[in-house]
Amino acid sequence: MVSKAGCRAKGARFERLVKHRLEAEGWFVVRQAASAFPDLIAIKKNEACFIECKTNKYISSKEKSALKKLSYFGLPYIAYPIKEKGKSVVIISDLSYKEVIRLV
Predict the structure, then answer these.
(1) Phi-psi region of 85 (alpha: psi -120 to 50; beta: other; left: phi over 0)
(2) Residue 87: which CATH number?
(3) Burial of 53 (0-12, 13-18, 19+ CB in 10 A)
(4) Of 16, 34, 62, 104, which residue is the least packed, with the fewest Cβ within 10 Å?
(5) Is 38 exposed, middle or buried (0-12, 13-18, 19+ CB in 10 A)?
(6) Which domain holds residue 84?
(7) Residue 49 in contact with residue 41, Cβ under 8 Å?
Protein backbone atom coordinates (compact mmCIF):
# COMPACT_ATOMS: atom_id res chain seq x y z
CA MET A 1 0.00 0.00 0.00
CA VAL A 2 1.28 3.44 -0.93
CA SER A 3 1.42 5.99 1.88
CA LYS A 4 -0.43 9.30 1.74
CA ALA A 5 2.92 11.09 1.53
CA GLY A 6 3.92 8.84 -1.40
CA CYS A 7 0.69 9.67 -3.24
CA ARG A 8 1.20 13.40 -2.65
CA ALA A 9 4.78 13.17 -3.94
CA LYS A 10 3.60 11.32 -7.08
CA GLY A 11 0.92 13.97 -7.61
CA ALA A 12 3.41 16.82 -7.15
CA ARG A 13 5.80 15.23 -9.68
CA PHE A 14 2.96 14.92 -12.19
CA GLU A 15 1.92 18.56 -11.62
CA ARG A 16 5.49 19.68 -12.33
CA LEU A 17 5.62 17.51 -15.46
CA VAL A 18 2.39 19.04 -16.79
CA LYS A 19 3.64 22.54 -15.92
CA HIS A 20 6.93 22.04 -17.79
CA ARG A 21 5.26 20.52 -20.84
CA LEU A 22 2.74 23.37 -21.04
CA GLU A 23 5.54 25.92 -20.70
CA ALA A 24 7.36 24.21 -23.58
CA GLU A 25 4.22 24.86 -25.65
CA GLY A 26 4.32 28.59 -24.83
CA TRP A 27 1.95 28.73 -21.84
CA PHE A 28 2.64 30.80 -18.72
CA VAL A 29 1.88 28.39 -15.85
CA VAL A 30 1.56 28.87 -12.11
CA ARG A 31 1.61 25.79 -9.89
CA GLN A 32 -0.29 26.05 -6.64
CA ALA A 33 1.68 24.47 -3.81
CA ALA A 34 0.38 22.62 -0.77
CA SER A 35 -2.51 20.89 -2.56
CA ALA A 36 -4.30 24.15 -3.32
CA PHE A 37 -7.13 24.06 -5.85
CA PRO A 38 -6.75 24.05 -8.80
CA ASP A 39 -3.27 22.57 -9.21
CA LEU A 40 -2.29 24.75 -12.18
CA ILE A 41 -3.36 28.03 -13.71
CA ALA A 42 -2.21 28.35 -17.32
CA ILE A 43 -2.42 31.45 -19.51
CA LYS A 44 -1.65 31.83 -23.22
CA LYS A 45 -2.68 34.84 -25.29
CA ASN A 46 -6.27 35.58 -24.22
CA GLU A 47 -6.99 32.14 -22.77
CA ALA A 48 -6.91 31.18 -19.10
CA CYS A 49 -7.16 27.56 -17.97
CA PHE A 50 -7.67 26.03 -14.54
CA ILE A 51 -6.18 22.55 -14.47
CA GLU A 52 -6.63 19.84 -11.87
CA CYS A 53 -3.95 17.15 -12.28
CA LYS A 54 -4.89 13.53 -11.60
CA THR A 55 -2.48 10.61 -11.85
CA ASN A 56 -5.43 8.18 -11.85
CA LYS A 57 -7.83 10.18 -14.09
CA TYR A 58 -10.43 10.25 -11.28
CA ILE A 59 -11.95 13.56 -10.24
CA SER A 60 -14.47 13.72 -7.41
CA SER A 61 -17.87 15.33 -7.86
CA LYS A 62 -16.78 18.02 -5.35
CA GLU A 63 -13.69 18.86 -7.43
CA LYS A 64 -15.69 18.79 -10.66
CA SER A 65 -18.23 21.19 -9.15
CA ALA A 66 -15.45 23.54 -8.01
CA LEU A 67 -13.91 23.51 -11.50
CA LYS A 68 -17.30 24.31 -13.04
CA LYS A 69 -17.53 27.38 -10.79
CA LEU A 70 -14.17 28.56 -12.14
CA SER A 71 -15.47 28.38 -15.72
CA TYR A 72 -16.74 31.95 -15.33
CA PHE A 73 -13.08 33.06 -15.29
CA GLY A 74 -11.45 30.52 -17.62
CA LEU A 75 -11.59 27.01 -19.01
CA PRO A 76 -11.73 24.13 -16.49
CA TYR A 77 -9.59 21.11 -17.40
CA ILE A 78 -8.36 17.80 -16.03
CA ALA A 79 -4.82 16.54 -16.79
CA TYR A 80 -3.94 12.86 -16.59
CA PRO A 81 -1.16 10.60 -17.90
CA ILE A 82 -1.39 7.79 -20.42
CA LYS A 83 1.18 5.49 -22.01
CA GLU A 84 1.25 5.61 -25.79
CA LYS A 85 3.73 3.55 -27.81
CA GLY A 86 5.93 3.27 -24.71
CA LYS A 87 6.01 7.03 -24.14
CA SER A 88 4.46 9.06 -21.35
CA VAL A 89 1.79 11.38 -22.74
CA VAL A 90 -0.21 13.98 -20.84
CA ILE A 91 -3.83 14.42 -21.84
CA ILE A 92 -5.66 17.59 -20.89
CA SER A 93 -9.40 17.19 -21.24
CA ASP A 94 -12.58 19.05 -20.49
CA LEU A 95 -14.82 17.87 -17.66
CA SER A 96 -16.46 15.25 -19.89
CA TYR A 97 -12.99 13.79 -20.65
CA LYS A 98 -12.97 15.06 -24.24
CA GLU A 99 -9.32 15.57 -25.17
CA VAL A 100 -8.35 19.22 -25.67
CA ILE A 101 -4.54 19.20 -25.49
CA ARG A 102 -2.02 16.36 -25.93
CA LEU A 103 1.49 16.92 -24.52
CA VAL A 104 4.22 14.47 -25.51
Answers:
(1) left
(2) 3.40.1350.10
(3) buried
(4) 34
(5) buried
(6) 4-103
(7) yes
CB 44 within 8 A of CB 61: no
Task: Round to whole Å and give the CA distance between 32 and 17.
Answer: 14
What's the Cα-to-Cα distance from 55 to each of 8, 12, 59, 82, rounded to whole Å?
10, 10, 10, 9
Q: Could you list the pLDDT tens digit for every one of the 104 residues in the chain?
A: 566 666 778 889 999 999 999 999 999 999 987 778 999 999 999 899 999 999 998 999 999 999 999 999 999 999 999 999 888 899 999 999 999 999 98
Q: What is the pTM of this model?
A: 0.89
Q: In angstroms, how far is the first alpha carbon of the chain from the final one?
A: 30
